[in-house]
Design a protein that fits this description.
Number of helices: 4
Helix content: 10-25%
Radius of gyration: 19 Å
Structural class: alpha+beta
Strand order of the largest sheet: 3-9-8-5-6-16-15-18-19-13
Number of domains: 2
Order of helices and strands: HEEEEEHHEEEEEEEEEEHEEEE
Largest sheet: 10 strands, mixed
Length: 314
């Protein structure tokens, strides 16, 4: 079970990111200590147009970079960033994504393991028409790629490149409403640090503290005609897992717990982190991770194995 805890704005939280940046794979970027003013964080505005297209600038200065993603388009989109590990290619990463999203268990497992071996997923945004969602992530100098996950398996994805140039800089992070992490407890991936309530325009951090799993932190609205709990979500996905295994299963009494699609932070490789700022209607949601696991059985999404926490946005 995830522990719930209320967080306040304290300058010491910023030091967490300085430590992460110095110890993790993004060690060329560090956050300024609380009260220290660094240079402005570059902001890249990404708007998903009616024809599903989006644009990026050719380059950005290295360090912390903010991507502010908005869309007036209904339906699912997810702008995902990654860099290719040495000896591999963008084509391999796209093939990994196709396998991961195929729904065929053996192919799903190959796809997830391929992403771990071939790429570093740096995060991205699954947007919503309700308001822009921003992520701030550390980027070392190099070449990065971005695409819309919604294109995978539907059309040939348009891959955008972003060159990151420049040196390490000290920059200030915004105040945080919560500090979240993906961790492992009893051999299961869980969310830690999720409070029971958050502002509907909350700013929170999320770090992937696991060693061999890719994670996301999206918020999905729950139904309002009954009280959706984490136990009910477990029952729903136990039923879905039974169906995938060819068993009859027993659905929970009220059917699906969901009232809409998810939005928030997309995939992060182990050791990566992001600061997320949401803009969502008040109500009940669940933080959930729909990225499939790299391990059997059936390579199920982490959320199906209990990686979700119900939260109220007020």
């Amino acid at each position: 079970m995830c522990t719930s805890q209320t967080f306040t704005h304290v300058a010491a939280l910023v030091l967490v990111f300085s430590t992460l940046a110095l110890c993790g794979p993004t060690g060329d970027v560090s956050a300024a200590p609380g009260g220290v003013k660094g240079p402005p964080i570059p902001m890249i505005a990404v708007d998903i147009a009616a024809d599903n297209s989006f644009t990026l600038p050719p380059t950005v200065t290295g360090g912390l970079v903010t991507f502010k993603v908005s869309t007036a388009v209904s339906g699912f989109h997810s702008i995902q960033g990654f860099r290719v590990l040495p000896g591999h290619s963008v084509e391999e990463v796209i093939q990994d994504l196709e396998l991961m999203l195929s729904g065929i268990p053996e192919q799903v497992g190959l796809g997830v393991q391929g992403l771990l071996d071939h790429a570093e997923m740096i995060g991205g945004v699954t947007p919503t028409p309700f308001g822009a969602i921003s992520i701030t992530i550390p980027l070392e100098p190099g070449l990065y790629y971005f695409l819309d996950i919604a294109d995978i398996g539907v059309r040939s994805p348009i891959v955008h490149t972003l060159g990151v140039v420049g040196q390490k800089r000290q920059q200030s992070l915004p105040p945080l409403d919560a500090t979240l992490a993906a961790e492992v407890e009893d051999d299961q991936s869980i969310f830690s640090g999720v409070p029971s309530t958050l502002p509907s325009d909350a700013t929170f951090s999320f770090s992937n503290d696991t060693e061999d799993e890719i994670h996301e932190a999206v918020l999905r609205p729950t139904r309002t005609d009954f009280t959706v709990t984490d136990e009910y979500i477990n029952a729903w996905y136990d039923f879905q897992a039974d169906l995938r295994a060819g068993l009859p299963g027993v659905p929970p009494p009220n059917g699906t717990p969901w009232a809409g699609v998810q939005s928030g932070l997309s995939m992060l490789s182990p050791g990566r982190w992001a600061v997320v700022q949401i803009n969502l209607p008040p109500g009940r949601y669940a933080f959930i991770d729909f990225v499939p696991s790299a391990v059997e059985p059936f390579f199920l999404p982490h959320g199906w194995n209990g990686m979700h926490v119900v939260v109220t946005l007020d």
